[in-house]
UniProtKB/TrEMBL annotation:
GO terms for biological process: rRNA base methylation. InterPro entries: MeTrfase_TrmA_AS, MeTrfase_TrmA_CS, NA-bd_OB-fold, SAM-dependent_MTases_sf, TRAM_dom, U5_MeTrfase_fam. The keyword Repressor does not apply. Keywords: Methyltransferase, S-adenosyl-L-methionine, Transferase. The lineage of its organism: Bacteria, Bacillati, Bacillota, Bacilli, Lactobacillales. This is 23S rRNA (Uracil(1939)-C(5))-methyltransferase RlmD.
Length: 460
């Protein structure tokens, strides 16, 4: 039977037996029904299920599990109930050891899709397990809303704008969760106007909490829809009394309903300007918007792996592209001759300069801007860079930066990726000028399909 015919015959709600063969790049199970590919969330390889069609496309089907006839031995029998409710637990139904194995597979699938030069020969090391598999997240952004007169604070139900009121979250640190619940109670007691999605009224729309593992302190940021923050003084007083771990309270103003959570203006309401954290024996200051890896304990391990891949020495002039608050460059500064850091967020560069001082590191220079603009300028000014670490956002490397990296190849390049797809795509270009020595997947986000990868590249 021709594949397209079967998709024409099927409709939403139809059911059929399905054996799951592998995991897709978004963590969903993949099976084949009469040679047509079927994507089923929460299904695991070797599951035998009854699949119910949720969506019909010309070349593939989406389904959901109607019933599990025979559960795969990869399944976690103690899946938290919340896994079906909210995001961030897409892999919680899989045993942890198998999660690591599937993460390496997701990396392989991505390489297979984009096919960078000689990718079949790439050495993919076993995924490095996370120190903690639960309660590892040091930050949370909780939307808060008034719905039918009741105040909810938590996370959105998977794939919807429906807010689930959360008392607990298996991946979140305890202190963060208990502080969030206490603050919600204070907001209710003080009758602070909370955002109502129906009427588009109310002021407070999000509570952001970040936790320092080393110092057991919390940084709280309230995201509001107007500069006026009613009863902020009473709220701050109560937080000081009831949550002594809070060391910093800020307000970020995001007037528009724009896609990003954060508005441009952040002001400190009380306490410390920064939250401090220790990474591999170095101290770092983080302002509310600065980027810090979400899994603090695993970050030490990640940076060790970056160090192993780079093999820094005193002749190296290191470029830390996408440097954030300077974490990677500063932890390597004493092993190299000089570090140049580039970052697009001005506050992060201010933080980076502070952090260099804080750690008595004096061989760093920082630039505000995009790496694709500033790196070529550094080369033009005769700065000789021979080692580079890139740690880009999920979108991967900028086109112009890729061009510069391939036209002026350095001896050593380490790519820290948080998205296997964009990594594989970027390796297509990079493999013209660099040889991939190995890929090291690292689990920074247990219970999710996210894979962090450290790639060691050397000049051809």
């Amino acid at each position: 039977m021709h594949t397209n015919n079967i998709t024409q015959e099927l409709k939403v709600g139809d059911r059929f037996p399905l054996t799951i063969k592998r995991i897709g790049i978004n963590g969903e199970g993949i099976g084949f029904f009469k040679h047509v590919i079927v994507f089923v969330p929460k299904a695991v390889p070797e599951d035998v299920i009854v699949c119910e069609v949720t969506d019909v496309h010309e070349r593939f089907l989406n389904g959901r599990i109607h019933k599990i006839r025979k559960a795969s031995h990869f399944r976690n029998p103690e899946t938290p109930k919340l896994a079906d409710e909210v995001g961030g637990l897409e892999f919680a139904h899989i045993k942890y050891k198998e999660q690591l194995h599937f993460k390496a597979n997701i990396l392989r699938e991505s390489l297979d899709k984009y096919k960078p030069y000689a990718y079949q020969k790439y050495m993919i090391k076993p995924t490095v397990a996370s120190v903690q598999q639960e309660k590892y997240r040091n930050k949370a952004q909780f939307p808060i809303q008034e719905i039918d007169g009741e105040i909810r604070c938590g996370l959105y139900k998977t794939g919807t704008q429906e807010l689930v009121d959360l008392e607990e979250m298996p991946t979140q640190m305890d202190l963060t969760m208990s502080a969030m619940r206490k603050i919600v109670q204070m907001v209710k007691d003080l009758e602070i106007p909370v955002f109502n999605p129906e009427t588009k009224s109310g002021i407070l729309s999000m509570i952001v909490i970040r936790e320092s593992v080393e110092f057991n302190q919390l940084q709280v940021t309230f995201i509001t829809r107007s500069p006026k923050f009613i009863k902020e003084h009473q709220l701050i007083e109560r937080i000081q009394e009831e949550i002594p771990e809070v060391s910093s309270i800020s307000q970020n103003i995001n007037k528009e309903d724009k896609a990003g959570v954060w508005g441009d203006e952040t002001k400190l309401l009380w306490g410390d300007k920064y939250l401090q954290e220790d990474i591999n024996g170095y101290l770092f200051n983080f302002s509310p918007r600065a980027f810090l890896q979400l899994n603090s304990l695993q970050t030490d391990r990640l940076y060790d792996l970056v160090n192993e891949a780079l093999e820094p020495n005193q002749r190296d002039v290191l470029l830390d592209a996408y440097c954030g608050v300077g974490t990677i460059g500063i932890t390597m500064a004493n092993k190299v001759k000089h570090v140049y850091g580039i970052e697009i967020i001005p506050e992060a560069i201010e933080d980076a300069k502070e952090n260099a001082k804080l750690n008595e590191v004096d061989n760093t220079d920082y630039y505000v801007g995009s790496a694709d603009e500033i790196y070529p300028k550094l080369l033009k000014d005769g700065k000789e860079v021979n080692a580079i670490v890139v740690d880009p956002p999920r979108t991967g490397l900028d086109n112009k930066l890729l061009t510069t990296l391939t036209r002026n190849p350095v001896n050593k390049l380490v790519y820290v990726s948080c998205n296997p797809s964009t990594l594989a795509k970027d390796l297509v270009r990079l493999s013209d000028s660099y040889r991939v020595v190995y890929l090291q997947p690292v689990d920074m986000f247990p219970q999710t399909p996210h894979v962090e990868t450290v790639v060691k590249l050397i000049r051809r």
